[in-house]
Amino acid sequence: MGREIERKFLIEKLDESVFLSLGATKKEITQSYLVPSKDYSTRRIRKTKIGGVERYFYTEKSAPYESFARIENEWQIDLNRYLELQKERDLSLNEIAKTRYVFAQNNLTYEVDVFPFFASFDILEIELEDVSQAVTIPSFIKVIKEVSLDKAFTNQSMAREIPSLK
Fold first, then answer.
1. pLDDT tens digits, 118-130
2. Domain that holds residue 126
3. How far apart are CA 107 and CA 39, in angstroms?
């Protein structure tokens, strides 16, 4: 079992060239949510595309058990298993598409998710080793607000309803 610890921030939108100048990896991601199981509150399948190469993943996540931490198990699967799992989709949730830029700085990995339905901001995720680990935001990123504990900005919530800034 893996433990996922992440902090999330709404940030002012940046041009793609900023991320590419940092050597960021660009991933096109499409994810669908599956009907939950009794053991996991979130089950999803994800297709990623990097440089024309597609890969498929199945993920299970528990409800958060600490402020920013939860259990996460993820496996790479093949196309046939991905298509089979599509039959278990939770049809009350929309499929989510986003572009993710991943780069390292300050001994941290930063992931900026760009959603087509947000015109003025993106979402920055920072994966941490420990809940108390210090977070450093690169100076070129302008934070609007932290949304780590705001359920409206989970991908699953956005699949249900697109949030608005208040």
1. 999 999 999 998 8
2. 2-160
3. 34
pLDDT per position as a tens digit, 102-145: 999 989 999 999 999 999 999 999 999 888 888 999 999 999 99
**Rounded (5°) CA angle 85-88-93:** 115
* Angle ∠(67,33,68) on CA atoms, nearest 5: 10
CATH number of the CATH domain containing 36: 2.40.320.10
Whether residue 56 lies inside any domain: the answer is yes
- 164 vs 161: CA distance, rounded Å: 9
Is residue 145 in some structural domain? yes
pTM: 0.90
- How many distinct structural domains can be found in the chain? 1
